[in-house]
Design a protein that fits this description.
Blueprint (H helix, E strand, L loop, with lengths): L19 H5 L12 H6 L2 E2 L13 E2 L39 H6 L6 H14 L15 H14 L12 H12 L4 H14 L7 H21 L2 H6 L1 H16 L5 H22 L1 H9 L4 H22 L25 H19 L6 H19 L11 H25 L7 H19 L7 H8 L24 H11 L7 H19 L17 H4 L11
Antiparallel strand pairs: 1-2
């Protein structure tokens, strides 16, 4: 029988605040901290309530000493944090994996609202304040003076790679607009500035539309009232069409700029035919001779935008390649290369277009002829003169880098459009790395002109199964990612305030990446062995999405 409790002693009640070991062995705990008496007597260590890893007070721990882990460098335990920016997110939908190319092509005009917001924020950061308005030209309102100053200080420097280089938009177009008796040219310049400002400030959107409507109305009245001879010889009409084309590109309208491009093609063709056959046209052209440089620039503008846009879609040319002189090696700062290099780009585009039209049953002689022309273009490209690298200031270095970037991109385009290559081909991988390295140099120099086309070409030739590292060293810009895809998105974000349609360019790049990745999961979509007559996947993944895209 159990012993009877002494009634004189206090009843011993079990406490729930004791340590874990005493409660486990049903021993009375004196609740001393950090070690209770029974645990000290038995040599067991006790954790205090605040030191328990699991959140329970009074946990015990063995008195055996744990061996410390071997000392290793900190890099084995810590890595650099990954900075995630808003421009680094890609939205993927089920339609991206359905494999329907027609639906992808039809939806190419859709733009992302997030991209527009990112571009607007970037542009708003770069515009701290407007400069003083232009006072030496009589304008209707003070707002127009501010817009004209914005055109001169913001728009014109972004049309050339180097700020020290004279922009044709300030050296040719602006004096021509000031000296013109018609207000349409000045309205076109103001509309150009308002359209660019509308990217960051929505209140300028109706202002830009108003100026654009005035210019189109004036152009229609001129075309309806003047005879065809005067229209063909007029340089003002051609400049108006060029400014309308640039305005639509800035406003991210993918169809209308091509409409102005086709209209300019017809006008230039009519002008050249009229000068050859009509004495009145030649007399009118002589009256326009002081502005001959403007006419040459506008014609080159339309032809250049046509060539660069067709490099992606491979469509039938609007301006023929005979427009470019194959022997002219003089550098054009506005184009970022020589007319001779542009003629090579045009020939590659036309050969690519002919490749699309050939079938497997085409005569062997046609294939051999195209192969000979391809080898001829390779030889011409290798003979391109390179600018010297010694001497010069920072402006010369920027121009030299810009020219080299164009040349390397043409090499990549040649292999992509005319060779049986894929993004995994070594020559393509090396070309992409060179392009991204040169683009990083120009971005550090705050260059906005001439980067859209190289970035687009490099981005569309990235292997979906590899995260390409374009540099083995730490980039000079700490924000610049080291891997190709994040860097492309980073660069496009930097160009969001340029004169290019960056939103459409990024949209096409995203769709190309998604379609390549989706096709990589299907064995039937892979080219297991190269074929000398098989066109590469550029025609499948890129060209259907690039209708009416502007890349110049």
């Amino acid at each position: 029988m159990p012993r009877r409790r002494d009634p004189s002693k206090q009843v011993a009640r079990r406490s729930h605040r004791g340590c874990h070991r005493c409660r486990l062995h049903k021993i009375r705990c004196d609740e001393a901290k950090p070690h209770c008496g029974p645990c000290i007597t038995r040599g067991a260590g006790v954790w205090s309530k605040s030191g328990t890893a699991g959140g329970r007070g009074g946990g015990t721990v063995s008195n055996k000493k744990k061996t410390a882990p071997p000392s290793v460098p900190d890099a084995a335990y810590w890595s650099q944090p990954t900075h995630v920016h808003p421009f680094g997110f890609l939205n993927t939908f089920i339609s991206d994996f359905e494999g329907d190319e027609s639906s992808s092509s039809s939806s190419s005009e859709e733009t992302s609202g997030d991209d527009r917001k990112t571009a607007a924020l970037a542009l708003r950061r770069n515009i701290n304040h407007l400069s003083r308005p232009v006072t030496y030209i009589k304008l209707d309102t003070n707002a127009e003076s501010h817009l004209l100053r914005y055109y001169l200080d913001r728009i014109c420097p972004m049309t050339v790679p180097c700020a020290k280089t004279e922009s044709p938009f300030s050296a040719l177009i602006f004096p021509f607009a000031v000296s013109s008796a018609s207000p349409a040219l000045m309205h076109a310049l103001l509309g150009l500035a308002a359209s660019h400002r509308a990217r960051s400030d929505a209140s300028y959107h109706p202002v830009a539309l108003g100026y654009s409507a005035k210019v189109i109305r004036s152009l229609r009245l001129t075309l309806d009232s003047k005879p065809s001879v005067d229209i063909a010889a007029s340089s003002e009409i051609l400049v108006l069409m060029m400014l309308l084309c640039q305005l639509e590109i800035i406003a991210e309208c993918d169809k209308r700029w091509v409409t102005h491009l086709r209209g300019a093609r017809d006008l230039i063709r009519f002008r050249r035919q009229g000068l050859q056959s009509s004495d009145l046209a030649r007399q009118a052209a002589r009256q326009q001779s002081p502005w001959e440089r403007i006419i040459n620039f506008t014609e080159r503008y339309f032809a250049f935008y046509d060539v660069m846009g067709r490099t992606a879609c491979g469509e039938e040319p609007i301006f023929g390649n005979d427009f470019w002189s194959a022997q002219e090696d003089e550098l054009d700062p506005w184009m970022g290369c020589s007319p001779r290099l542009v003629s090579v780009i045009g020939e590659i585009t036309e050969l690519s277009w002919r490749y699309h039209r050939l079938s497997s049953t085409t005569a062997e002689e046609c294939w051999r002829d195209l192969e000979r022309q391809r080898m001829r273009l390779v030889a011409r490209l290798q003979q391109q003169p390179k600018l010297g690298s010694d001497g010069g200031d920072d402006g010369d270095d920027v121009i030299r880098t810009s020219v080299e970037l164009k040349r390397v991109t043409v090499e990549l385009y040649l292999h992509s459009a005319l060779n049986d290559t894929t993004p995994a081909t070594p020559v393509i991988r090396q070309g992409v790395k060179k392009i991204l390295r040169l683009a990083a140099v120009l971005l550090r120099a705050d260059v906005k002109a001439g980067l859209t086309w190289p970035l687009f070409m490099a981005a569309c030739q990235l292997d979906p199964t590899e995260e390409l590292e374009w540099t083995s060293e730490e980039p000079a810009d700490e924000e610049a990612p080291r891997h190709a895809r994040p860097f492309v998105l980073y660069a496009l974000d930097k160009l969001s305030d340029s004169l290019s349609n960056v939103t459409r360019t990024r949209s096409v790049i995203e769709k190309v990446w998604k379609q390549r990745e989706a096709a990589s999961f299907l064995a039937s979509d892979r080219q297991l062995s190269p074929s000398p007559r098989a066109f590469n996947d550029w025609a499948r993944f890129v060209a259907p999405l690039c209708h009416n895209i502007s890349l110049a």
